[in-house]
Design a protein that fits this description.
This protein is mainly α. It contains nine helices and no strands. The two termini are 14 Å apart.
Length: 185
């Protein structure tokens, strides 16, 4: 029930909460912090590592490029209707990928969508703070994904089929709860 009280979209951008003026440095700090403060984005990155645990490092770099591409698209073409609902549903999709019910290729547009939503908080900023923000996003998402990949590589061999199903079910449930919040909040 506590998950229903969480609003994934509203509480994970430090610029507004700390009333900071957009500069290159505060943009960098915001980009570094943003994925850590959004539970939906953080869960997506960790679960993405679960899917990518058997893939090469090039896969991680490609996924980060997709995320940044989504952010760039959001800066150029803002205003995707129901974007936060779609992001919440990406956790459901990711759970179904973890359960091996959907193909992994669906994570590419899902990660691009996460990047797209991360752009909404910086629309209207000057180019220097946006550049800092994008660098911060790249660094923090890369570090999170790398740490999750390294941590999960060791644990992945011990994950049973029932454990995978349990993890998938948790992702689906959390995604459904966030979707409910996005619709009815």
């Amino acid at each position: 029930m506590a998950l229903l009280a969480v609003s994934p979209a509203l509480a994970h951008h430090p610029m507004e909460g700390m009333q900071l003026v957009p500069t290159a440095f505060t943009g960098l700090i915001s980009g570094l912090a943003h994925p850590l403060l959004g539970v939906d984005h953080l869960l997506f990155l960790v679960a993405l590592a679960l899917v990518g645990v058997q893939r090469s490092g090039r896969w991680m770099i490609a996924m980060l490029a997709v995320g940044l591409g989504g952010t760039a698209l959001g800066l150029v073409l803002p205003g995707l209707p129901m974007a936060e609902l779609l992001v919440a549903l990406t956790l459901v999709v990711e759970g179904l990928v973890v359960a091996r019910r959907l193909p992994q290729v669906l994570l590419v547009p899902a990660f691009a969508l996460h990047g797209y939503v991360l752009s909404t908080s910086v629309i209207g900023w000057e180019s220097s703070p946006i550049a800092g923000y994008l660098l911060g996003l790249l660094l923090s998402q890369g570090a999170l994904l790398l740490l999750a990949l390294v941590g999960l590589r060791q644990a992945a061999s011990g994950i049973t089929a029932s454990g995978r199903t349990l993890l998938a079910g948790a992702l689906i449930g959390i995604g459904a709860a966030f979707s409910f919040t996005a619709v009815f909040a």
